[in-house]
Amino acid sequence: MNVIDYINKYGDYKFEQVDINEIDKLIFSIISYVDFKGIIPSNGTKITLEEAGYIFFNNNTKKDIRNNILAVRFAIGVLDKLRKKDRYKDLFLYNYVYIGDENQQFAALSIDLGKNIVYVSFEGTDQLISGWEEDCKMSYRFPVPAQKQAKKYLNKYFTFRKCKLIIGGHSKGGNLSLVSSMYCNFLVRNKILEIYSYDGQGLRKKQIESKRYKRIKPRYTHVIPNNSIIGLILRHDSDYKVIKSNRPGILAHSVSTWMIENTFFK
Fold first, then answer.
1. Residue (of 98, 203, 198, 184) closest to 142 by Cα position
2. CA dist 94 to 123, 156, 190, Å?
């Protein structure tokens, strides 16, 4: 099974029937790759995933979708599945932010999971050159603009909100999840239950040896495929979780290649 197979198999089961698991949390990190500008408000107003998907596919042609990079196209395919499934279609999406210019590329959205728990999803690198430049700059500069925006996002939307948080993202989004959780204010940090980096870059020496990292580390999970390249850039602890991809080398970075057995990664 891959992610699409998982959605087909479990999409008709509500979360009360099959608990939110590690595959669902990956799925939540994927959908921030979709361009929801003009669809999901940034002011806290909520919209269901079903409605957001309906508007997106009304506004975008097949040609528009094909013009995106692989990660974005896959996320759009996932959204198309999710919006028709009882497990996901009634989830509320809100606080969508996208910033893309010559200096930075950043996107995030919030997903209301019910029971006063919110999943904050940070987007990985899309087709903007500035986003790829930020990936390279992480090796010699801290923080890069997207990392600053991720911290700002958490502080802006969740400092005074009474809820618990799960933070996650794929690729650069995984690094943003880690860094923003380290550097957000203490009111937000105390609300964080879990942090997920899905094949995301690590930290520089100074940051990984810092008290800020040690403080959040018990809540942090780093997932990498067995052929990981991106997820081993920079420094990491050795307790990452290795899962199976069905493709070699850099192709294993795509979550579409990650193998699943029932509700767990293989």
1. 203
2. 14, 13, 22
Strand order in 192-198's β-sheet? 47-48, 92-100, 105-112, 117-122, 164-170, 192-198, 220-225, 241-243
Following DSSP, what letter does each residue of 70-110 receive, concatenated?
A: HHHHHHHHHHHHHTT-TTTTT-EEEEEEEEESSS-EEEEEE
Over residues 1-37, the pLDDT tens digits come to 999 999 999 999 999 999 999 999 999 999 999 999 9
Question: Residue 203 gets which letter from DSSP?
Answer: B
193: DSSP letter: E
The helix/strand/coil state of 34 is coil
Assess contact for 174 and 197: CB atoms under 8 A: yes
The pLDDT tens digits of the residues spanning 132-170 come to: 788 787 888 889 999 999 999 999 999 999 999 999 999
CB atoms within 10 A of CB 86: 13
Backbone angles phi, psi at 66, to 5 degrees: -65, -25
pTM to 2 decimal places: 0.95
